[in-house]
Design goal:
homodimer; alpha/beta; Rossmann fold; 7-stranded parallel beta sheet; 13 helices; 7 strands; 53% helix
């Protein structure tokens, strides 16, 4: 049997071959020409998957809540995939919390697919790879794709914000409401979940969040509901999901979802253009001359701007822009 | 009185004018030609400031610990500046936790300077602006610059990792050790602090962290010590600082600090080159044609790679690379 092409793998994934699906996602993760070929293949197949971003500080219980949401979605007999977006770490490689462990009770359910994704260090990687992976999962016939991020850094918030609707998970305690605001989460939240709501302070945190939303002047249908839930017991999780689907209904009927998808496509193109240019930047700064300039900057003999100028000029001569 | 130039402002900042120093830092934050001029002015003045990155999950108590460290540093009669690095958020603008509130007991101490810094949305901004700000604070005569990040996302970890030494703050609870590893913090830690160590589980977390370090095979002088501290009471904070200074001593004597600074200078140049190229990417994707391509991608009529190609080609024709 010969080596299977991206096209073969994608066809197999469409027919329910999970190993093939995993391999297609690995191609996307690694980037380069095969990723690009997958991108060209999937774009015309309009998968109907709706995406829900799930973000919040590390330790907020996002994975537990995601697993509880899987129960709710499966009870409605819908197919669901989870894309867990990890920051790049060569040291852990995402191995500590493996995909099998994560799936819990759903490990034997072939209507559930869980996949961790890391950037493995290439710049702009996740923001470029995640939307592509979501499209592949749509082609593979999943009704829902939950995109869960590990942290609340700039990249993670950006990735979660690319979903059709975004769920922001916080915990009881005023600090978290402030931190959520500071991390830019207020702008991307469609639904707030105060997880671990059986702990003291849940109602105060809800009040604090509502107050921050008041201050921001977010009103009516545009205002994200604030739900209380306990991911470990499943309490309130059906209500969270109902808030998400209601919100999506509003986004759809108001035309806001189409608007979001257009904006997202624009952002994705910008990111691809940027990724290409970043590759060039790295090529431009991987030389003996670049190392020499770095020594001069470290020694306080040269400012970094001038060093960057010289490398850009040298790079332009060596490899002029092509179409 | 005429408008003061970056050079005037920098001279005033060197003489202890705090308002001038704040204005120079604003110039850097905003970027563009004035930032560049500041960059050229400061590079040749070898400020002797040592930088310490302080990072960890939101809510880990980094600000409280930083304030407790200020007490220790001031007790040794040294001048110290804090650069609090916030993710970009147009909604909060860093206003919720203002610099004055942050300074606490040190608000009237003119040997302490605290400044929040945000990117205000421009790509690559913080990673480019933070090292420049550190140099300015060095020129202004601070012995120490503490660079505190709000989150543990990709950008935040990168910024904290640019310091001479990096302090990673976690809390009691196994989850945090896993999260720290997942967020890529193990690679950048010079000293671990288990803050809020008066809570249950501190010794278990220390054991877990030591085990992760064992697994990573980090030994001898290269192994980050794990300290216990309570930021709110100041307990253990002097020991944390002593661990930091010892570690810096080792980095200095072993030549590793010079190596780090060289690598950092190289990274900074790469980032500047990338930032320049990103500006071009944004210019290339801000057009009617780009909006039209985004519509096609959103409608599933075109793949984003082809859209990016077309924009790159059009951009190359319109504005060829210059030195």
């Amino acid at each position: 049997m010969g080596r299977r092409t991206p096209s073969d793998l994608l066809a197999a994934a469409r027919d329910g071959d999970r190993a093939a699906l995993a391999r297609v996602l690995s191609l996307i993760e690694r980037g380069g020409e095969p990723a690009r070929e997958v991108g060209r293949l999937v774009v015309r197949e309009s998968g109907s998957a709706a995406t829900v971003g799930i973000t919040g500080a590390p330790g907020a219980g996002k994975s537990t809540l995601t697993n509880a949401l899987l129960d709710v979605i499966r009870a409605a007999d819908q197919r669901v995939a989870v894309l867990a977006v990890d920051p790049s770490s060569p040291f852990t490689g995402g191995a500590i919390l493996g995909d099998r462990v994560r799936m819990g009770d759903h490990a034997l359910d072939d209507q559930v697919f869980v996949r961790s994704m890391a950037t493995r260090g290439h710049l702009g990687g996740l923001a470029v790879a995640a939307p592509e992976a979501v499209r592949v999962l749509g082609v593979a016939g999943f009704d829902w794709v939950l995109v869960e991020t590990v942290g609340v850094g700039q990249v993670e918030v950006e990735v979660a914000g690319q979903a059709d609707a975004t769920l922001v998970v916080v915990n009881p305690g005023w600090g978290d409401a402030v931190q959520a605001a500071k991390a830019g989460l207020m702008e991307i939240a469609d639904v707030f979940v105060i997880n671990k709501a059986d702990r003291p302070g849940a109602t105060e945190t809800r009040r604090d969040l509502e107050r921050v939303l008041d201050l921001a002047g977010v009103k009516g249908d545009d205002r994200p509901p604030v739900c209380l839930a306990v991911g470990t017991s499943g309490e309130g999780v059906a209500e969270v999901w109902s808030a998400v689907t209601q919100r999506l209904g509003h986004l759809r009927s108001s035309g806001m979802l189409d608007e979001r998808r257009r904006r997202r496509a624009g952002d994705e193109i910008t990111r691809l253009v940027a990724a290409r240019l970043l590759e060039r930047a790295q090529a431009a700064t991987d030389s003996d001359r670049a190392a020499d300039l770095a020594d001069q900057v470290a020694a306080g003999k040269l400012d970094p701007w001038s060093a960057a100028d010289e490398l850009l000029a040298a790079h332009a001569e060596a490899a002029p822009e092509r179409g």
